[in-house]
Amino acid sequence: MLLRPTRRTFLKTAAxxxxxxxxxxxxxxxxxxxxxxxxxxxxxxxGDAKMTVVSDGYLTLPTTGLGVNADPAEVQAxxxxxFLPTDENKAHTNHLYIExxxxxxxxxxxxxxxxxxxxxxxxxxxEAAGIDPMGITHVIITHAHPDHIWGIRDDFDEAxxxxxxxxxxxxxxxxxxxxxxxxxxxxxxxxxxxxxxNSINVDGAEWQMxxxxxxxxxxxxxxxxxxxxxxxxxxxxxxxxxQLIALGDSMTHAYLNFAHPDWYNGTDMDGDQTVATRTRLxxxxxxxxxxxxxYHFPFxxxxxxxxxxxxxxxxxxxxxxx
Length: 322
Prior knowledge:
Elements: H1 7-15, E1 41-46, E2 49-62, H2 72-81, E3 88-100, E4 103-107, H3 122-128, E5 138-141, H4 146-149, E6 165-169, H5 170-176, H6 190-200, E7 207-210, E8 215-217, E9 220-224, E10 233-239, E11 242-246, H7 256-259, H8 271-288, E12 291-293, E13 302-308, E14 311-316
Parallel strand pairs: 4-5, 5-6, 6-7, 11-12
Antiparallel strand pairs: 1-2, 2-3, 3-4, 8-9, 9-10, 10-11, 12-13, 13-14
């Protein structure tokens, strides 16, 4: 029988994160949304590859889950200084759709209708961008957290893109599918395990396991980026001498992770490993001038990494109209 993780369970998990009495002024200059929605997609090119960032919506989580190994007051002060709310963190969900050669690749499949009500918009935004979801040839899963994989199942518990080839890291698959895992984790995380296993076991998806460096198609490969989850993968696209790293959740905050790469979050399963992975990625992207896409960065989440002393800055890419 399929068990269905619920939004209530996720919010209970978020609420179980450490809480503190946090001082500091609220962020100023909060801008309101438009009366009608903004576009949920953004197109650009990388060499000969056509790229589209497609939003699945956003998540709202307490800021007490940010920088859990740092002084809470320092985290709050950092957020306020960057005009960010000090109580709630809104994390966008930016999916990368890649057209390269004859392949049409989607990195992560979103949360569908099984997670938070503010997410699950990828299908509508794909269609708004003129992309037929049923024409996707490859689906790469960076890791098996709800907002990245729960959308794989349609309302009949079958693979939502029946003709696509599905890929997941071999270490990630082995972790989530181990016998008895649900009884080994905290009660708050049991639904994450159930959701991951239900998603991986979906009818109609034949998984290919990806080791570090695996090439999905020419010009698209994955690299091991563990820490957030044991088998987390990032997706590297290379075309025409240019490279971009779709970071997944190896970096989740466009300001904190760059200025304080040694801070990790409550959702990072191995904090020390997360920091080591992040430091490696930041150095690589800055040194080789690789573009990056942050899954949870402010939409569309595309930019570059600039080194600044012992820390870094995220430099958003310019929006191009033509």
